[in-house]
Write a structure and sequence with these properties.
The protein is mainly beta. The protein has strands at about 45, 50-55, 55-60, 65, 70-75, 85-90, 105-110. It has a 7-stranded mixed β-sheet with strand order 1-2-6-7-5-4-3, with no helix packed on it. It starts with about 40 loop residues before the first strand and ends with a strand.
Length: about 110
Amino acid sequence: MTSPPAQPPPSGFEDLPVPTAKPTPDPTATRPAPGATTAPGPTRRPPGLMTLTGTVTAGVEPNCFLLDGYLLVGGTPTVRAGARVTVTGRVQADMMTTCQQGTPFVVETAEPA
């Protein structure tokens, strides 16, 4: 005589409803109109180039400058603490630095904004 397969212990979730349909989008959500601009932030330029605009802040280590969470590598003398700049470059997340903060962003061009 064989016994039935062992059943796992109850989880406490057996009485919860199981979703059977995909969620529907919120009809009250707004979408930007075609051609409308969105909030400022990184702008992508193919292939892999990004443009950032904002005010540079000083990092915790000397000669380390940050913009929107990115560690700006290069771009001096335009890139300095307190300067409002537009920089174009590439994220290089695997770059090692002594700055201890921010994702490395290798600046190819920098100009006052």
